[in-house]
Amino acid sequence: MRHLISGHKLGKQPAHRRAVLRNLVTNLIEKERIQTTVLRAKAARPLAERMITLGKRDSLHARRQAAAFLMTPGATQKLFSDLAPRFADRPGGYTRIIRSGWRIGDGAELAILEFIGSNLKKKEKKTRKRQTEEAPEEEKEAAAQK
After folding, report:
1. Is the dihedral of CA 28, 32, 33, 39 positive or negative?
2. Is residue 4 included in any domain, yes or no?
3. How many independent structural domains does the chain possess?
4. What is the pLDDT of residues 97-139, one digit of tens each?
5. CATH at 49
6. What pTM does this model have?
7. Type and span of the H or E element at 17
8. How far is the C-alpha of 112 from the C-alpha of 100, rounded, in Å?
């Protein structure tokens, strides 16, 4: 039974675990969607929700607390300017975890951790330049000479 056991150790020392979770939350705030393991997503979710709550307070003390936890000033700026106003009328539950299969290398279960209402930005497809008709003819001539 798991009585009074809270949090996830993630198989890391406390300083490393804190660094991993700070990086996850910072990347989540910057990109609004990250892919990680299910256990890391479950461990990072309460921290991300706490950051949104700090953003909704929008006081100097809240800004300093968020800046002390987040790794980049850009993430702190985005938290207070974009994300906090988006969730101003929502009392909680700012993130969702979507299970997305298993990692090929070690079989770890993967999940997508994202903010509610984040839009998926599709990558633009690069167009390949088609070869001119002369290139295949040259190859045919080279093959015929051999």
Report:
1. positive
2. no
3. 1
4. 999 999 999 999 999 999 998 776 677 888 887 766 555 666 6
5. 3.90.1030.10
6. 0.79
7. helix 14-31
8. 7
